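Hey all, sorry for the wall of text incoming. These are the two entities for the joint prediction.
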Amino acid sequence: MPSLREIQVTFQQALYRPDAAHLIAAQIVENGIPATRRLQVYRNNLLGVLGESLRAVYPVVERLVGTAFFAAAARHYVLDQPSMSGDVHDYGGDFPEFMGAFRGAAHLPYIRDVAHLEWAYHEAFHSADDPALDPHRLLNVPEDGQAAIRLELQSSARLLSSAYPVLRIWQRNQPEWAGDTHVDLALGPDRILAVRRGAAVEIWRLGSGEFAWLEALSTGQTLGAALERSLDIQHDFDLTVALRRHLAAGTFVALA
Amino acid sequence: MTTVPRQAKEPHDRAIPALAGVGLRSPHMREVLDTRPSIGWFEVHSENYFGDGIPVRLLEEVRRDYPVSLHGVGLSLGSSDPLAERHLNRLCALARRIEPMLISEHLSWSSVDGRYLNDLLPLPYTEGALDLMVERVSRVQERLQRRILIENISSYLRFRHATISEVEFLSELARRSGCGILLDVNNVYVSASNHGFSAAAYVDAVPINAVAEIHVAGFTRHATEGAELLIDTHNRAVDPEVWALYRNAIQRLGPVPTLVEWDADLPPLAVLLDEAAKVGDAMEWCHALVA
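and here's what came out:
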């Protein structure tokens, strides 16, 4: 008698590789319907459930490449990348890199970065909305100590940069967008912050210095080091404006 | 390992009134919060509210006005892998936050070697699989500090080496672990058709005291190589024959909280609520029959 583990391993193999189905097929009661046909229902479910979860996370990618192309790409991805969680919302984080390398999508050089933006949105949507840092905590720090401060970003905050105007592409492919969907690719690059604020995910376009500054802070660098980094990128970066903007919006949650 | 005693009925258990509920899916969430429709309770898929994101915040708003049941689809109770502790931790955190009236999972497995098929897959109904399910359901109940319900699934294949019928397996699981049964009469109907057993006999064999919830839903017929497979698609209204089986079930079981599930090709909320009203009609019919 096969062990439960043997049954489960061979069942799984049969769904990913129909040529391996004979191992589990021998254990199945056919009763007028071939075992391979019965297994096909489960293979369809696997492709259907994970394919639908990719569609739910990547609607703009689907719109850009078309429904049929997306379905074909999703099928490849699902058979190539097993799900590692019982929660399908965890599935599909590698899809942007997969799409970037997918044959047939080469005429859409920005597709990888658009997909990264959609995954960032998805992650922010399912992340906590932590209480914002009280701006007074920063103001109370003596001026000569401010450079050594570290600011912690919202756990939902995601920073992305792209050589392409991916935020415009994303915005113009939302269901509610009524205008022209054409985007001039010369309008890139885009630097973006996606962050949950209350009951919504907000996506902000950032200046080059502001992006470098937040990125440095997000990796644990001090305010002083982050400022230096952003001034290297953008010599007229205005720290006061950036601080005021992100303190008011609640981008930061803690200070150390 | 300690098992939850069979007689230890939780105060929550019958706290969901024997009324109709509907499966709440995210496209209907806004309308439910805005219009507060008249319905006994809502059931949601637990995994859709894991973490601390926007979805659980909306569910908390629903919970203020309605009883909520948490229905898990991803715990993979029947897997030969170790129990997924992270998944269970997330479920425990959600249960603390929502204080659900019921918590349920499935008589199935969905993962092996850490890889998930994210589907409800059939177990071989053997003594070994029963021991495993009893142990794991008991552990989940200990962690949640309450009884859970286990639902019979729709299945498309059976294993040759099975030694126990599904309804016996489920009944023994309930008896030995103390769990309740979520009787999905659509799944009974679908599996009975796919495997050639009697749906009526299955419903007659379920232990009356263990059933704490019933599901009904729509299925799809697939002609295949000269035979027919019924697929549990949850994409349409409940079949008349499933309603008939449901009436038989409540005639025997008495009134039980009953959920209408609709997951794909989702209709307007009003259509779903109309479908749920048929549960009330069936309960009245049953009551009239008894009176």
